[in-house]
Write a structure and sequence with these properties.
Structural class: mainly alpha
CATH class: Mainly Alpha
Largest sheet: none
Number of strands: 0
CATH architecture: Orthogonal Bundle
Number of domains: 1
Oligomer: single chain
Number of helices: 5
Low-confidence stretches: none
């Protein structure tokens, strides 16, 4: 399950679209991007992360590194 699908499951498709200020079709497009792996547009990652609680590095690991845990 990709992060967009996870967010849809938690919030609902239309409520997530409203939360993000986009159409539900845009959310579906993000969900199916990259052969179903999900890809939130780079400029929307901070907002998506803040509004869904999914960390940026989980939303777009190609753009954000996972935080390094302290020893």
């Amino acid at each position: 399950m990709n992060v967009v699908t996870k967010a849809i499951d938690e919030h609902g498709l239309k409520p997530l679209a409203v939360l993000m200020g986009v159409s539900y079709q845009a959310i579906r497009k993000w969900e199916s991007a990259n052969n179903g792996a999900g890809k939130v547009p780079a400029e929307r990652v901070p907002s998506f992360s803040e509004k869904t609680g999914i960390e940026r590095h989980q939303v777009r690991p190609d753009l954000y590194e996972a935080p390094v845990e302290a020893a």
